[in-house]
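My hope is that you will study the record closing this message with an eye to the fold:
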Amino acid sequence: MPAERLKPEALRFTCDPARFSFKTTGELKDLEDTLGQARASEAIRFGMGIRRTGFNLFVLGPTGSGKHEMARRFLAEKAAAEAVPLDWCYVNNFKNPDEPLALKLPAGRGSKFREDMERFIESLRAAIPSALQSEDYQTRRQAIEERNKERHAASFREIEEQGREKGIALLRAPMGLAFAPVRRGNTITPEEFGKLPRKEQERIQADIEALQEQLRAVLRRALQWEQEEREAIKELNREVTRFAVENLRENLQKRYQDLPEVLAYLDAIQADILENATAFLQPETPQMMGGLPVPAGFLFEPIVRQYEVNLLVDQSGAKGAPVVYEDHPTLQNLVGRVEHKSRFGMLTTDFTLIKAGALHRANGGYLLLDVRRLLQSPLAWEGLKAALRSGRIRIETPAQHLDIVSASTLEPQPIPLDVKIVLLGEAFLYYLLSAYDPDFPELFKVVADFEEDVDRSDESIQLSAQLIATLAKKEGLKPFDAGGVAAVIEHLARLAGDQEKLATHRESLFDVLREADYWAKENQALAVGAAHVRKALDMQIRRMSRLRDRSYEHVLKGIRLLDVSGEKTGQVNGLSVVQAGGFAFGIPNRITARVRMGDGKVLDIEREVKLGGPIHSKGVLILTGFLGGRYAREHPLTLAASLVFEQSYGGVEGDSASLAETCALLSALAEIPVRQDLAVTGSLNQHGEVQAVGGVNEKIEGFFDICKGLGLTGTQGVLLPASNVRHLMLRPDVLEAVKAGKFHVHAVRTVDEALELLTGRAAGERGADNRFSDGSVNRLADDRLLALATAARAWQKTGKEEKEKEKNGP
């Protein structure tokens, strides 16, 4: 079957503006659904609806595909109809301040509770000092103190009286209390005491010891009396403070009668206030710390702050469940953190410095996370999994998470977690996590896979027009006329790389719309037309094409050798694609082959020098299999061949050059020249069938640009696999050249079709005699291989005879 020369209409899908009934997109309604994403839409709705452990979502698709916008829109719609979750507060744990307590309150009541506690504290700051400084309190306290003083004084008077009767005085010295004998109203010196009779000394000594024992008993009782005094004053403080606090507390209890946890906390507050009432009294004298004066209230504020409420999650004013997107998902941004303050050179913290994480804010709703950023944040992925597995949000520092010894910090009570996680990321991240993290399939059971394109149909074209209208309105762009919409839809087919498909990548579409709108404004047009869209596309290419233009310049100036006319033996123009950032372009490569007698190996020079990738090497090995299967059925394959991409100094990968390599090898083998005005792309299998390859548009346009630069002859063109015809969306200038007969595109199905077109000879088929037809390419190649096999056998025979002569002698 001869190669097919494609007609111009086969080279590009053309969207006729006449198929649209509108003049501009301003007449169209917004597109309510997402184009071509029915499968992903169903998965997202299922994942949102099922409330079971582990049924979190992973929305996968290319960056810029619109998955974030779609997921967030669906979540917002569902969350709006759901109940508003609870408020959460952290409060002081009076039994263990290092473990603050978590309180839950109905939505909106957390902020009211915080405000009520602020007013309660302000009232305490006034009420307690007032009560403790009242005249009644001072009178009662003074009575307690006076009673204790009187007991002290009475005990000492009794001892002094007993000592006086025995001639012994109680002295108050700097080192404490002491007894000394008295004579004629004066204490005697040790020298005088030593002159007394021995019996007198013994009597005095005995009396002093008895008095000392009584004094020790009094001092022991004094300690007890002081303890009793302190207890009496503390009880007085409790009584007076209770009277001052009780009314304030009762007002709070009435407001939160339905919340037992809050009532228990209020009871704990009252008990603590009663125990530490005097802490509310400001010191009368300036305080010092580390030799420095302490600001007024410095020591007082921490005491008052322990009764405050740290409102961690405030749902007041919320409507429906929360939908939260965390764009910087570090461990602490997810699970929360405990901050510290510097006070006089010391880092201190308390429960009021606990800060919420994204899991707290999304609790009871939905949390969206970019999986790439999540995995790039140390410990964030493990922290998220730990929260999902345990069903609790535990605030931990990275050091705690790694079990590293660190400075002591708070360990807030964990908060129950009820959240739906939605991860957004590329497909390869989903498959990597599925393969290497055994926890991942258990925690993320729902996958929403975004389509990269949609089938082209009348319906999808009309929906694409609506999408263009919707995006234009959203971005505040000029409306697009029918011609402009048609040009954009043709570009979507080009992005899809298929005439029967339209790309769904929203960011790429957005870019074209924005740039086309810019050129329309530059031309002061009322609407964006086809010319503005083409201008935008041309300028996109111009901005990124410096490397391409430099590569083409090397060919046009003869620095890189390439023939686009005439014939050469063992030389074929292959086509490759270079990816430079977001821009791809095709470039021709001269592929050459040399053949000689050998052991049946085809030497891939690219592989030998480690410039060829595994897929390219696979293509060369398939080529070898094709040669052996077609020509060496009854004799060994006794050739040695070498293949190389000339002037290629970088890596070569892919099997799209295997057809061109085969044609070059058969040309060298049959010693038949091939046309240089044709370039070849296509993959070959072992049966000689030509298979589809990628980048056909860029490859054809690259060869066209080179031929145009060197001068179009009217015979130049490209051979491509017939299965790639549907992928053609060539540039308008290439299409015009084909229409004018200056350039041609040929579709081939087998290597024989390619050989006939390249050599101008019949490829030839095997006849009944198992021989190819005379003069055909295959016959010449077969004859050459047979001749090489015969020569190889003769060479081997001569070699054996020479060895026998050497062995047996002359």
Notes: The mean pLDDT is 86.
